[in-house]
Structures are given as C-alpha cells and as structure tokens.
C-alpha cells in the first residue's frame, strides 16, 4: 500500500509541475473536476496492489468497482483527493489507499506528496507519520478547539444545513478550517493538528484511510449525526473523542433547525 501510494504520488508531483498541459473535464457538474493525472494515478495504484493481491476486489474513484475472487477483501482508492486544489496549484492534496475486510477498514495509507507526509495505520498497530507515532489532541472543550470541515460546492446538497452549522459553531470554537481535501483533514485530526472534522456528500474512497488513521491515533469516527459510521453512508465525523459529544450536539441542533 505504501509503495502504491508513493509511486502514484511521484507521478502526480510531475503532473503538478506541468499543470497547463493536463487534460481536464467535469464529472458530475462544472465544479466537480477530473484530470488525466487522476486516471493515471489510479491505474498506477491498482497495478502495484494487484502484483501482490490479484484476487482482492477494487473500488476506485475513477474506475468504479470490480469484484475479485476474494470478495471479502477490497482495496478502496482515491488516487488524487483534492483534485480542485491540485488543478489550481494548491499543494494540499493526497493519495488515499485503504484495505477493507468484510466492510471494516483494517489498514490505511494517506500520502501527501507536496508536504512529504506519509500516514500509515493498521488495525491494532497504531498510526504513524513518517515513522513517528501519532496521537490525537487532548483538547476537551469547543472554545479551545480548531475544527475542519468540508464546504459543499456548486451542485452539492446541504448548503442551508452547512450555513446553520457555521452560525452555531463559529462563535464557540478557536477556529474552523477548510483545506479542500478530506485526505488532509482526516490525517491532520490523527496528527492532533485539528481536533475534529466533518463533511457530507463524501464517498468511501474519500474517508476510508482517514477512519483507521484517526481510530489508531486514539480518536473516534462516526457518521455526521453520531450514529455508527457507514463507509458508504456519504458522511463522516472524526474527532479526538474528547469533544465528539459536544460537536455532535451542535450538528444535531443545526439539522433539527433546518429540518434535514
């Protein structure tokens, strides 16, 4: 998984230095972009993974799902998380590779090439950044916490809900950040840089590695309404655990107020 992420990341770095030459098109709408770099990176990741586990199923953002002979095990891959950042010359983007066994993520790698940060976690073996052990933050109140979130862009749902969440939370916390890449935000919760992160309208490949990174760093991962996390439920909230209930209360209040 590390080899796959780093090999794809090296190719993406080369493309990042030649953005004007990339072919780009819209996927589901004008603000949802995909490039040749995304597609090449996914092929690269898949090629490396299949060398050692050819029978595993595969779910990728660009190529979709394919069922292997061993359907209990599935690779879940986002070859370029933060495509818009990438295409606009912002270095906050990464490669996501996860392994799920019978629906549970048991290993995850997030590689942020432009920052040279490699996050690795395996069930029961901790979370690591470039070889150093990670722990989530210990901040226990909202007022001392920095949160991260995803902001719905053009064509995405839940704009009124997000606006209400911001109205409720912005006056209660030390700050709210939006990097534009789920891979970055979830890894940074694991690293203790953010205290929590939530987003809706996500896919499994956006969040899968981050879930185990945060859990193995001592944090908590649920759905955005506090229920047990469903990788295919299109939303997530991860935190250091200490502020999880406090954040959930505010998100639930916002949901109740807008009738979501």
From TrEMBL:
Catalytic activity: a myo-inositol phosphate + H2O = myo-inositol + phosphate
Annotated EC: 3.1.3.25
Gene Ontology BP, a term: transcription antitermination
Binding, Mg(2+): 61, 78, 80-81, 206
InterPro entries recorded: IMPase, Inositol_monophosphatase-like, Inositol_monophosphatase_SuhB
A GO term for molecular function: inositol monophosphate 1-phosphatase activity
Annotated keywords: Hydrolase, Magnesium, Metal-binding, Transcription, Transcription antitermination, Transcription regulation
Family stated for the protein in its record: Belongs to the inositol monophosphatase superfamily.
Entry protein name: Inositol-1-monophosphatase
The species this protein was found in: Pseudoxanthomonas dokdonensis
Lineage: Bacteria, Pseudomonadati, Pseudomonadota, Gammaproteobacteria, Lysobacterales
């Amino acid at each position: 998984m590390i080899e796959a992420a780093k090999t794809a990341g090296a190719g993406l770095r080369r493309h990042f230095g030649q953005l004007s030459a990339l072919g780009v098109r819209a996927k589901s709408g004008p603000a949802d972009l995909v490039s040749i770099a995304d597609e090449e990176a996914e092929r690269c990741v898949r090629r490396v993974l299949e060398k050692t586990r050819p029978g595993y199923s595969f779910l990728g953002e660009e190529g979709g799902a394919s069922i292997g002979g061993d359907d209990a095990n599935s690779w879940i891959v986002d070859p370029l998380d933060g495509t818009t950042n990438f295409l606009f010359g912002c270095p906050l983007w990464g490669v996501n590779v996860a392994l799920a066994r019978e629906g549970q993520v048991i290993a995850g790698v997030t590689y942020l090439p432009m920052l040279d940060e490699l996050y690795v976690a395996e069930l029961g073996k901790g979370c690591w950044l470039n070889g150093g052990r990670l722990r989530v933050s210990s901040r226990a109140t909202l007022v001392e916490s920095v949160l991260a979130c995803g902001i719905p862009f053009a064509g995405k749902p839940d704009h009124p809900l997000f606006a209400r969440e911001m109205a409720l939370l912005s006056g209660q916390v030390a700050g709210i950040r939006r990097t534009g890449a789920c891979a970055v935000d979830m890894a940074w919760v694991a690293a203790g840089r953010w205290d929590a992160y939530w987003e809706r309208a996500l896919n499994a490949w956006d969040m899968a590695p981050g879930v185990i990174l945060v859990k193995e760093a001592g944090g908590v991962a649920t759905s955005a309404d506090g229920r047990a996390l469903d990788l295919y439920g299109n939303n997530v909230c991860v935190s250091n655990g200490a502020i999880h209930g406090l954040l959930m209360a505010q998100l639930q209040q916002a949901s109740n107020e807008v009738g979501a």
